[in-house]
Amino acid sequence: MTSISTEAAISINGLCKTYQGGKRALDGVTFDVPRGQIFGLLGPNGAGKSTLINILAGLVNKTEGSASIWGFDIDAHPRNAKASIGIVNQEILFDPFFTPVETLEIQAGLYGVPKKDRRSLDLLRAVHLEDKANAYARTLSGGMKRRLMVAKAMVHSPPVLVLDEPTAGVDIELRQQLWAYVRELNAGGVTVVLTTHYLEEAEQLCDRIAIINHGRLIANEPTRDLVGRAQEKVVAVTVDRDLTAAPEAPCFEKIVLKGARVLEITYSKARVNAGEVLAAVQAAGVGIVDVSTREPDLEDVFLSLTRSTAD
User: Fold this and answer.
1) Closest Cα to residue 29, out of 215, 195, 213?
2) How far apart are CA 11 and CA 5, in angstroms?
3) Which Gene3D superfamilies did the record assign (predicted)?
4) What tens digit of pLDDT does each residue of 51-74 get?
5) CA angle in degrees (0–180, nearest 5) for 150-156-162
6) What is the pLDDT of residue 295?
7) pTM for this entry
């Protein structure tokens, strides 16, 4: 399939979606997914990720803006755009009375793939379902069904694959199998777009990450740069007496008194270490009874980004 003019796998420009009743799910979103990458699309629930994916899939009509897949505008060239993308939704959707091989054959037929060019057994082998080729799909485990959905999305050999929360509720072993296959597809030239709640997953897999919050794009940068923003760390300090106010110190980014005896202190790893933070608490004349810390996670990245965009 030849592309038209663009080098981006997916190009989104000024995309808006307002639902009936006035809810604005997407608000002027613009970004490109570079070809050949594994691209993370992250955001909290309700941020607009699924709306964006459903627009690309042709399931939801946009209100404003434009989108193209592999150079094909979704309005001007809808058939070519759809042929260029495979989408694995969060929900597991297929007929439980067909076997996996029948499921793939039917899907290939819907995409107009000639019988001689179909690769149903190869796809089942790739997702470790070859031994279940002729079992009824309803007898498959949840993990197997999810893998079947990935194979189903690849029947027409699209250059772009979108995985919407593919590992939600999936055990670690299956998650690793799924990622091994995704890396294999990517190594073979498939551009992958991944939505996930798990920052560690995105960190390990994605070359670049975009974050959507309240329908707006608030970050779009290489993964390493984005993770570097998660410099804030939180330490909970239990003290030896009741406090009426939290002590202040220049090394605290933020301090909150939780109950009478627990101080929740946010500090920047780039500026200070935990020892300096604890020393500052003691310097305020407070004894320390217990300490617990947590590493920054996706929520912290969201918070730091949404704070900076609000400033």
Assistant:
1) 215
2) 11
3) P-loop containing nucleotide triphosphate hydrolases
4) 999 999 999 999 999 999 999 999
5) 40
6) 65
7) 0.75
